[in-house]
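B., you asked whether I could sanity-check this one before it goes into the benchmark set. Here's the sequence:
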Amino acid sequence: MPRLAQAALVAAALLLLALVSVPLLGLALGTSPADLRAGLAQPAARDALRLSLLTTSLSLLVTVLLGTPLAWLVATRQARWLRLAELIVQLPAVVPPAVAGIALLLAFGRHGVLGAWLAPLGLEVPFTTGAVVLAEVFVSCTFYVQAATAAFRQVDRGHVRVARTLGARPWQAFVRVTLPLALPGILAGAAMAWSRALGAFGATLLFAGSLPGRTQTLPLAMYAALESDVRAAQALALVLVAIACVTLLAARRLARRAAWR
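And here's what the prediction gave me:
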């Protein structure tokens, strides 16, 4: 390749890298340790952090419990309905967050598809902590299911057949052979799903609102702080970036371990 073409490729790569890294570097350099401490000392910031940790933990639990069976079925079966199920689960990753919020409202609102049945029972989902969990599951499940499906597909089926010939039942082969072999990929997907749930904004805002101590998660608290306390907004933004970096590094390491197996 001519040197001029190589230089153009390098320049284009560096330009894109700068477009991504400069804003993040500006956030880091523009937030002093004193500003970080002062921002995190705000009661709203502490409440939002506690709520985010609670709701993202619950949403991850729901995603893993419901997404693992689906990922295993998609990876090991060829039924048409599973291809459709895989497509449906992938949709939240590409639809706009506002669309997700409106869809959740139309499903669980007082006059929604499911909400109309829940309202007579005294169960109202929108603008509650439960709504935050549902919104986080909706926007993050794609990342877990895709990673878990890929992990299950990489498992050597020969190991499973050997376990079956030795007398293991299907569920025993799954628990003792398939799941341990797929575990690094599953954990990587769980890490990415948790990070995505932590950053959920549009769907959470429309479906759960931004009620301090009840539905106001870290991204919503950061947005609200922009109007009153920029230091708090900067501190929360820096915390979210730091968590995202740690999660991404952990997910990449787990993904490498899965590839080595």
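One thing to flag: The chain has one domain: 36-260. Otherwise nothing jumped out at me.
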